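Final paragraph of the annual report: two paired records, presented back to back.
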Amino acid sequence: MSDRPAGPRCAALVGPYLSGKTTLLEALLFASGTINRHGNQKDGNTVGDSTPEARGRSMSTEINVARASYLDDPWTFLDCPGSVELAWEAQNAMLASDVAVVVCEPEIERALTLAPLFKFLDDHQIPHMVFINKMDTASARVSEVLAALQGVSQRPLVLRQVPMESGDHPSGYVDLVSERAYKYKPGAASDLIKLPDAMADEEKTGRAGLVEKLADFDDKLLEQLLEDVQPSKEDIYRHLTQNLRRDLIVPVFMGAAAHDAGVRRLLKALRHETPDVATTAVRLKLDPQASDTIANVIKTYHPPNAGKLSLVRVWSGQVAEGMSLNGVRVAGVLRLLGAQSTKASAAGPGEVVALARLEGIATGTVLSSGAAPPAFPALPLPKPVYGLAIAAQNRNDDVKLSG
């Protein structure tokens, strides 16, 4: 299998409204040990959706940022709003991420809502995985859901797991690469169990389908299959990793984030298969070896009593407090975990941080310590569908409103 990339990486959690992205973020943070309890949106105690507007609407209204570490690997997760009105915000996050995790429900009729999302990922060649969430409420077979999703994806979907059920609910899964069975264990890693005899045929069929899809991109692997030679699991993992990083395939995982089911398996796949920041910089036609500091603004926040914050991803060099980017002084560097922030002296390539009081710098701006910032893929603003006039309740807030 390919060596795991070093350095901070970034994953965007995207998907339709109500697919469970913020719940998945909470589960990822809990599984990684970043938080010691699993909050939920009903109780209003999640890391994401901490603003009054988000909690009042019971939905994400802006990007939730969470810095985490899993098995000593640094990560930033960007939980993106799923409402169509906020699609541009999610697109900015996806473009700056190393990988996107498309979160969806196991409902055939909702597959069409993913079409614009898949198109954006495919058009911009952003590596992405699918996490079929809420498997505990599934009313359709996985094969039917997969077929519906394939209908809106240009890239082939590669099923990585087969669910095991106890009664009407999933109790675990069979990994199609390792050919091992795991039983879910709430709040902890799944238990390795003996592969049930009743699952043997389904596992063999699923694994054969996985290998056949990989063979479409490798002549040597195709020759092995024609000669009835089965590749080793190490070879399969290597092909999966290479093909994801080249955005040739879309691996599909499943679980139930609200019950911590399947979350650690997703984390392991992200850890081993997600490309590094240098690879992503090349995809964006940036030079990861540039001597100048280069970063781009993903999102602009105006939190109460904190001034303006510009969420940026660093591509080369270091962003430090007091330095000048695009002629504007950086007043502070902050690492974010939801509404919490920690001051940092500097941030290096791959990191996602908030920069304080970059006046006159808008979302989408490329920042540079050099004479001129490099070009960056521009995302056109979506066309408005209605007009609305707003005014500040307090006239003293007029300055904040214009900002």
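The closing record of the year follows.
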Amino acid sequence: DFTQPVGTIAAAFDEWAPVETSAAGTPTVATVADVANGEYELTHDSQDEVQNMTLHLGDQLVIDPTKGPVFECKAKITIASGASFSADQRVVMGLAAARNATLDSNTHHCWFKVDGASNLWVIEGDDGVVDTNDRGTGVPFVDDVMQTFVIDMTDLTAVKFSIDGVQVGGPVAVPTLAASNLLQPYFEIQKDGGAETDGLRIDYCKVTW
């Protein structure tokens, strides 16, 4: 839960670590002021450039996927104008191996994703052999409204994804994930350019295994 002092960039009380790859801009990667129970935000600024912001454990991979991990978070996407992303934006949230700015190159993960100008969540899983991409859920994100996301990996042959308590997209198989394929909680928002000032806000993240 993100109740550190307001404006904290790296979470001072645990292992969370942010990454932001802007060149000239100053996107916001910090705790949020004056919100009940604390939030962490990753928000673009209007600089027309690549901006990728990540919150993870600094690539300290500690979660054994064979021990039945369950990822849960409450989060929301905030759109500064319009109702959806532009074609050059994306968000992922879930469990993943070490960070790779090219999201599809992360070959060990299970996560929720919004990609491009769609406002619909999709789900993905990859164990290095079986790769499920962009499986539709039919569930939209609602601008500036928190939703609860769960990824239940207790059965790696049938990983279950749910949004607000409802299973979505059908089970995803990642059967060859091994104890050596350690994971971390992982949030990332990206834009490839443009003046969008959209963001991702995280209320809490919990992982048990």
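The first strand starts at residue 17 and ends at 20. This concludes the annual technical report; the extension proposal builds directly on these records.
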